[in-house]
Amino acid sequence: MELHGLLSYTFFLFLIAGNFTPEFTISKSIHRHINRPTKLFVFGDSYVDTGNNPKSFASSWKPPYGLTFPGKPAGRYSDGRVFTDYLARFMGIRSPLPYKFRKYAPNKLRGGLNFAFGGTGVFDTGNLQPNLTTQIGFLQGLIKDGVYTKRDLKSSLALVAVSGNDYGTYTSTGGSEQGLPSFISKVVNQMAIDLKLIHDTGVRRVLVTTLQPIGCLPTVTVTSSYQQCNESQNSAASFHNQLLQRAVMTLNNNTKDSSFLILDIFSAFNTALKSKRDFTGNSKLKPCCIATSSDANCGSLDENGKALYTVCKKPASTFFWDTVHPTQAGWRAVYLTLRSSLNRIFL
Ligand SMILES: *[C@@H]1O[C@H](CO)[C@@H](O)[C@H](O)[C@H]1NC(C)=O
Ligand SMILES: *[C@@H]1O[C@H](CO)[C@@H](O)[C@H](O)[C@H]1NC(C)=O
Ligand SMILES: *[C@@H]1O[C@H](CO)[C@@H](O)[C@H](O)[C@H]1NC(C)=O
Fold first, then answer.
1. Ligand 3 pocket by Cβ (under 6 Å)
2. Pick from 232, 230, 209, 216: nearest CA to 273
3. What Pfam families would the database entry show (predicted)?
4. How many whole angstroms separate alpha carbon 183 and alpha carbon 296?
5. Is 41 helix (H, G, I), strand (E, B) or coil?
6. DSSP secondary structure letter of residue 224
C-alpha cells in the first residue's frame, strides 16, 4: 500500500501559494477549559499532512486534489480538509502551518506546526521524506533555537498518525506473510520510542491514532470491485492496534498524568463504513477519484496533459477520495465519531 502515490523526482521549484492555512469561523460557544491546549504539533504521514511534501512530485499538489477546499491543490491528500484541520477546529485554533512554510510566515507559529510528510513511516519508506524520528528532530531543533519555550510546550498537544506506509514498504520489498507479526511489533516499538521523544520535549499530551482498517482501503478492495474488505489485512491492523494499546499503557505507567492517549481511527472508519452503501446505492468502498489505467493515479496526466482519472460528481457523498485517502466528508464523519472521545480527553 502506497500512501504517497507515484513519485518522480524532478527539480524542486517552490512557489508560495497564497492560501495555505484554512480559515474556520470559530464558534464562540467553544468551551475553553483552563487546560485546553492552545498549540498543536502534528507528526506522521498523508493522513495528517497539510502541505509539507514537495510540489515537484506530490499528488497532493496536483488537480483534482483540493477541489472542495480550498478549491485548488494545496498539499492535502484529499479533495479538502484532513483530520488535522478538524482537530484544530475542535481546539479552536487555526490548522497549524506546514513546517516547510515556517520561514515565510514566522508570525503564524503560535498555534503550533505540522511536521507530517505524506508517504512516510516510522522507518524509511523510500520516498526520501523525513521519517517520524526526523520529524520530531525538527521540533527539537526549534526548541533549541528558542522558537518554542518550555511554557509553550506545556500548553501543547501532539497528534501522531502512522497510517501504514511501513507495511506497504514491507510488502513491496518482499517481506513475508509469516514475518509480518514480528515486523508489526518492530513498528510499534519504534512508535513507542518516538512517542516518548515527543513527550520528553515537554509537550503535555500526545494523541496517537490507531491504524485504520487497511483491508477496506480502495487499493485493496478494487480486487472485489469495491465490494469487500480484506479481513486478513484488517486483522493485521487490529494486531498493530493491540500492541499500540499496550505500548501506550506502559508509557502512561511511567508518566504521572496519563499524557499519552489513543484516538481510535480504526473504529471510526468502521463506523463510517458500517452500512456498505451510500444513499445513492454505491458501495462506500469505491473512491471518488479513480485512475483510468493501472499505471496511473488520481492526479496523473498523459503526455498531452489529458487526465488519466475520473472524479465523481459528489465528493461530499463518498467516504474515500483516492485509493487510500478519505474525502473531506470522510474525515468529517471520522471526526464526528471521535468528538465525544476528544471531549473526554480535553476535560
Ligand atoms: C530516520 O531517518 C534518519 C535520517 O535518514 C535515519 O538516520 C534514521 O535511522 C531513521 N530512523 C529510523 C527509525 O529508521
Ligand atoms: C487479503 O490480503 C492478503 C494479503 O495481502 C492476500 O494474500 C489475500 O489473498 C487477500 N484475500 C482476499 C480474499 O483477497
Ligand atoms: C501498569 O501498571 C499497573 C499497576 O502498577 C500494572 O498492573 C500493569 O501491568 C502495568 N501495565 C503495563 C502495560 O505496563
1. 246, 249-250, 253
2. 216
3. Lipase_GDSL
4. 30
5. strand
6. G
Number of domain units in the chain: 1
Write out the three cell numbers for 332.
468529517
The whole-angstrom separation of Cα 336 and Cα 297 is 29
Q: What's the gap between Cα 296 and its chain centre? A: 22
Residue 47 resides in a domain: yes
> For the ranges 108-117, 136-145, 261-270, 338-347, which has the lowest average pLDDT?
338-347
Q: What is the pLDDT of residue 280?
A: 72
What is the dihedral sign for C-alpha 241, 189, 76, 6?
A: negative
Residue among 85, 55, 60, 58 at smallest CA distance from 72: 60
Q: Is the CB of 185 under 6 A from ligand 1?
A: no
Q: Is the pLDDT of residue 26 over 60?
A: no
Q: Note down the domain range covering 79.
A: 37-277+328-345
Whether the CB-CB separation of 273 and 285 falls below 8 Å is answered with yes
CATH number at 114 reads 3.40.50.1110
CB-based burial of residue 316 (10 Å sphere; 0-12 exposed, 13-18 middle, 19+ buried)?
middle
Average pLDDT across the chain, whole number: 90
Distance between CA atoms of residues 57 and 116, nearest Å: 16
The total number of residues shown for the chain amounts to 347
Quote the pLDDT of residue 2. 40
Evaluate whether 50 touches 95 at the Cβ level (below 8 Å). yes
pTM as predicted: 0.90
Mutate to test the pocket of ligand 2, among 233, 234, 235 (most ligand atoms within 8 A of CB): 233
Task: Say if 132 falls within a structural domain.
Answer: yes
328 touches ligand 2 (CB under 6 Å): no
Residue 256: the pLDDT is: 82
With a cut of 90, say whether residue 16 has pLDDT above it. no
